[in-house]
Design a protein that fits this description.
- Belongs to the AlaDH/PNT family.
- 46% of the residues are buried.
- Strand 5, helix 4 and strand 6 form a beta-alpha-beta unit.
- By secondary structure, this protein is of the alpha/beta class.
- Helix 1 packs parallel to helix 2.
- It folds into 2 domains: 170 residues, NAD(P)-binding Rossmann-like Domain (Rossmann fold); 180 residues, NAD(P)-binding Rossmann-like Domain (Rossmann fold).
- It has an 8-stranded mixed beta sheet, sandwiched between helices.
- The protein is built from 12 helices and 19 strands.
- The longest helix has 20 residues.
Length: 380
């Protein structure tokens, strides 16, 4: 099959869907690949490297000519959708729950679409799990941002001038991003505490050398390993218990999210007020409303009490070389798995295809998206 790799045009998006070494493997498997000129430049993969890997280089919309598959990172805009050949399959981080109207546009164009973030988290699909590979990078970069913004050392240091106490870091949410943040903060020498409403992750947090914050009366283990949405009563208990833990921290990193929902507010204005001047909050849920009540997506603000609140947006794109490398391997694994009988098989009976396919041959098959489109205003 012929695979097209266009240049990403979303603001701040520096990743590329396929990197040269992965392209060489796909071409070795019998596929033809065309890459738009400059597609990998922002991730430091030059056109020459793609050409040496065997890819054809095309300018602009010519990259889509004859494509069976279009591999992207971010969802395309209307003009890019219009350039995709009818009958082709779009693969990317398409955010269907956040923008169901975009899914409708894929259907109108007569293409199929697979959302990488909807790949089920099963043993078989581990190599395809782009959500995890990118979240891990986000967790790492959140700690780097916090360390840069904090006017203190992370590690304990003993010097001739005296001993410097280590920073205290609280990581809220112990999914992939949270666990990576915990591990990175520990490697920098901080005293780290992890919190998650799912008690099942306690051992994972402790295995990284961090303490686990337990809040009685709150248990949110949901389907697929995700946290379920808490009840209003549980949220009240959680927020009250959080104020003390947050107030005693130099750094708070928040990663809590429920798929398809607004991020839960876990760090209230009162909790921010309890933190010492110079403290830092990095909110990885900023794009879906933020875990901190004061977060502004894409901005760093300073509270009246001198706390810096970083509304982190698309952190994986700020580490584009490795983020692209990992994402490309996810895409390769998915395409290799689905390629059968000289075509991409989007079989509804296959667990992975059933989970990831949102549009099949111009028909919307993702039930949450169909429900959102049917609701007043068509939003979730």
């Amino acid at each position: 099959m012929k695979i097209a790799v266009p240049k990403e045009r979303a603001p701040g998006e520096h990743r590329v869907a396929l990197v040269p070494d992965v392209i060489a493997k796909l071409i070795g498997g019998g596929h033809a690949i065309t890459v738009e000129r400059g597609a990998g430049a922002a991730a430091f993969y030059p056109d020459d490297a793609y050409a040496k890997a065997g890819a054809a280089i095309a300018d602009g919309a010519a990259v889509y000519a004859g494509a069976d598959v279009v591999a992207r990172v971010a969802k395309p805009d209307d003009a890019e959708v219009a350039a995709i050949p009818a009958g082709a399959t779009l693969v990317g981080l398409l955010a269907p729950l956040g923008d169901p109207r975009s899914v409708e546009r894929y259907a109108q164009r007569g293409i199929s679409a697979l959302a990488m973030e909807l790949i089920p988290r099963t043993t078989l699909a581990q190599a395809m799990d782009a959500l995890s590979s990118q979240a891990s990078i986000g967790g790492y970069k959140a700690v780097v941002l916090a360390a840069e913004a904090l006017p203190k050392y992370f590690p304990m240091l003993t010097t001739a001038a005296g001993t410097v106490q280590p920073a205290k870091v609280l990581v809220i949410g112990a999914g992939v991003a949270g666990l990576q943040a915990i591990g990175t903060a520990r490697r920098l020498g901080a005293i780290v505490t992890g919190y998650d409403a799912r008690s099942a992750v306690k051992e994972q947090v402790q295995s990284l050398g961090a303490k686990f914050l337990e809040i009685a009366g709150v248990e949110a283990t949901g389907q697929g390993g995700y946290a379920r949405e808490l009840t209003p009563e549980e949220i009240a208990i959680q927020r009250a218990a959080m104020v003390k833990a947050i107030g005693g921290s130099d750094v708070v990193i928040t990663t809590a999210a429920v798929p398809g929902r607004k991020a839960p507010v876990l760090v209230t204005a009162d909790a921010v007020a309890a933190m010492a001047p110079g403290s830092v909050i990095v909110d990885l849920a900023a794009e879906t409303g933020g875990n901190c009540e004061l977060t502004r997506a894409g901005q760093t603000i300073v509270s009246e009490g001198g706390v810096s609140i970083i509304g982190a947006v698309n952190l994986p794109a700020t580490v584009p070389t490795h983020a692209s490398q990992l994402y490309a391997r996810n895409v390769q694994a998915l395409l290799t798995y689905l390629y059968r009988d000289e075509r991409l098989a989007l079989d509804a009976n296959d667990e992975i295809a059933r989970g990831a396919v949102i549009v099949r041959a111009g028909e919307i098959v993702h039930e949450p998206t169909k429900s959102a489109l049917a609701a007043p205003g068509g939003v979730v």
